[in-house]
Structures are given as structure tokens and as C-alpha cells.
Amino acid sequence: MKLSSALLAALLGLATAHGHHEGQHVPKLVGGRRFLGDMRMRQAMVANVPGVPKQPLGPARRQGSLRSRQIDDNTDGQCGAKFGSCAPGYCCSSEGWCGKTPVYCNAPDCQINYGSGCDGNKKPAGEDTFSVPRPKLGTTLYGGAGIYECVKVGDIALTFDDGPYLYTSDLLDKLKSYGAKATFFITGNNIGKGMINDPSTIYPAIIRRMHAEGHQIASHTWSHENASQMTNTQFTNQMVWNEIALNSILGFFPTYMRPPYSICGKNCENILSTLGYHTIYFDLDTAGYLNDTPKLIQNSKDIWDQAMKTSDPSKDSFLQIEHDIHTTIVHNLTDYILTSLFSNGYRSVTVGECLGDPPANWYRAGPSKSLVPTSVPQSTPKSSTSVSIRTTVPTRSTIPLPSTSTTTSRTTVSIRTTVSTRSTIPFPTTATAGRTTTIQTTALPTTSTSQATRTTISLRPTGTGGQAKTEPAGTG
Length: 476
Hints:
Layout: H1 5-17, E1 30-31, H2 41-46, H3 66-71, E2 91-92, E3 98-99, H4 102-105, E4 155-161, H5 168-178, E5 183-186, H6 203-212, E6 216-219, H7 232-250, E7 252-254, E8 256-257, H8 266-275, E9 278-279, E10 284-285, H9 297-309, E11 318-323, H10 327-343, E12 347-349, H11 351-354, E13 363-365, E14 437-438, E15 456-460, E16 469-472
Parallel strand pairs: 1-10, 4-5, 4-11, 4-12, 5-6, 8-9, 10-11
Antiparallel strand pairs: 2-3, 7-13, 14-15, 15-16
Helix pairs in contact: 5-10, 9-10
């Protein structure tokens, strides 16, 4: 595969960033992300999100001296490294102005070091998880340079960052209709959505549904801050506060995480190891977050197609990244990816599955010691089956009909059953799965006396990613 200049730059940055880890190889990467050190992603992440306006250059009232603003307790003045902090309870926007509205306070743009009112500085309600036991179970790497690739061939682990959000329920509907599984790297309080464990929001129910339908839940920190710009205490809070919120919803919290912007230096790596986290990156990125329009999304489809074209499920696998805060990814790209994934012979699995890590290791019990799931809940995919009966007379006989006549003519009933129009692809439908259909066919009359032929076909969807089976009735 020919690498673009952007991808080569990413690989070079990756090698530099992780050069202190002896024996670490540069992972294969498919896609166009410049995911190390490129903070322009911050603006791309919130672009096109309804109801989240861009950060202003400053408040409408810019006149007056800096002194007068400071005398006014810096409630509408400048803030940041050069100007200091805003008044208590105020937020410092990314452009360095104090205010209290969402455009000032939304994470991750609000500068948490200079605005106590920033969403990223608000701790969620719930039992503190900091002191819970954190044994490192299994053989999957904890902390360190992180994980970029699946270990089981034929698997594609679809992952979605930054949610839950307005479109996440629609995404869950799609995944269910295809019988697909995904991993959600959840952010606790970003882009103005509020805290995920706030019972007045839709998010607790969405997160419970994720788990109930067999998806894996992982952490993407509390408010999507850049780990390289935080103190050790701040980054620890980012991890623990997300644990508190998720534990209050589920009764347990994850052992898997992905660093925002895929930036995690040595201090970050050490903290994640201490807290008992698997650090998950990716090796396939369609850059959907940069192509969030019906026209531009074709760029992401082209990246995906190139990965499929140059891979073989008998020896390859992918750990793929998307973002469920973008409507075109959810409502357009996801269908394209799932259809292609199955038609190319891959399995749609969680990150834990593609790494061969047992489900019992994916979560930790909270302070109340709720039972940690030891298996993946299975959801039955919706499926539909079309059956066509074609009768031809005469043909070469494959089903001889009993006859009492001495005539030499024979009548043949040929039954051809068609199940699904796509090879091995489970397709969306609202039909009820597990239905048995009985079809009775009668041979066309001939000069001989013959009995009616009754054929029963039992149609049973195979579950996830499979083609419906056709069996004679009575075989179980």
C-alpha cells in the first residue's frame, strides 16, 4: 500500500513519541490521521455538532483597559497564561476570555487551569473509586506504550469515541440490525452535553443499553483534555471521575481506555499502568470526523475500501476508530462499513474480543463491589428471509413422484430457496428472528396419477454475521 505524506508524517511522529520503549515496533496504520501532536483535531471534533457554537474571539464588550477588567473581578476580562485566572465560578474560553455560558465553559476547549467553572473541573456525583483494588488480570498489556492492533485474525474491532451523544441511540439501532459489536470509548462531560450520569439526561439509559446489547464500554477520560497539558493529579482526576460516573450507572467501570488525541506521554502511561488500564489506540482510521458531510464522507469510504482491498481475513485484522458525535458517520458511513465488513469475510467484535481478553477482565467492581460481568450479553440480530419457489415441468427429475399409472412421463418439482441477497451479511429489518415458515407446494397435473408433494422449510437465522440456514422440517 502506498503511504500518503500525511501518513508518513504520522508514522515518524509515532516513532519519535514512543522511541523510549525498547522493542516497540511502529504499527501499521491505515488512514489519514495525524494523531500525535496535532491539536487541530480539537476544533474538528466539535465542528458540525448542532447547538455547539464555535468559541468567540471574546465578549462583545471589549472596550476598556485591562485594569478595569481586573477590578471587575475578571468576570468578562482576559484569562490564560498571560492574564491569570477568571473569578471563581467563571470559565476561561480557548481564546482567553472569561464568561459563564456554554461557549466559554464547554470541555475540552475551556482552559481548566484558568477557569474553575469549566466543565472539566466539575466532579460527578457518586462513590469515589480511587481506592478500589486494581489487580492486573490476564495477559493483555496494561499501561505502557499501548495497543494498536488486534491479535485474532479475521476480527475488526469497531470503536467509537467521544460519546454518548445525540446520535448514539441511532448507532446502537444500526449495530443491532447487523448483529455487530463495537467498543464505546466514553467521555463523561464534553461538548456541552452535561454529565453522563445526570439522570435528567438520555445518557445513563444509552450506556446501560450499550452493555445490555453486548458492546464493550471503555473510558475516554472525563472531559477529553490533552494529557500532555495536565498535572499528574489533573490526569488522575480525569480517569477517576469518569470511573465514578460510569460506576454510578453500571455498578462497575472499565479497564480499557483511549487517550484523547491519542496523546499519552511517559507520566500518562505510568498513571494508566498504576490505575490498571489497557491503553488502546488503532491501526485503521477513516478520518470520518474530518469528512462529516454527505459529499466528503466518500473520502472515508475510500480509505476503508483501500484497507479491505489490500487485506485478507485469513491473516489480517483491524482495530478501527470512528466518533459517534458526528451525524454523517452514524447515519451514512456506519452502514457502508458494516456491509463491507461482513461481505469481505470479517467478524465484527469488541476490542477485548479481538485481543483475546476474557470479558471478566474488561471491568472492575466499584466501591460497593457489584458483580463484574463475566460474559458478553448476547443480543439477537434482527433478520429477514425471502423464499422463492420455482416449479418447472418437465425437467430432469430430482424428486420422483409416486404414481400408479403406467405412463412413462414424470413430473418434476424443483424447489429453489433463496435466503438473503448478500452473502453472509446480516441485514437490517424489523422481522422477528427465529421464525419457522412452512411452504406447501403441489405438483402440476400430468397424465399420471400422483400425490401432492408437501415440503416444509425451517428458516433459522444463525445469529451474528451469518446467513440464515435452510433445513428440512423436523431436523431440529
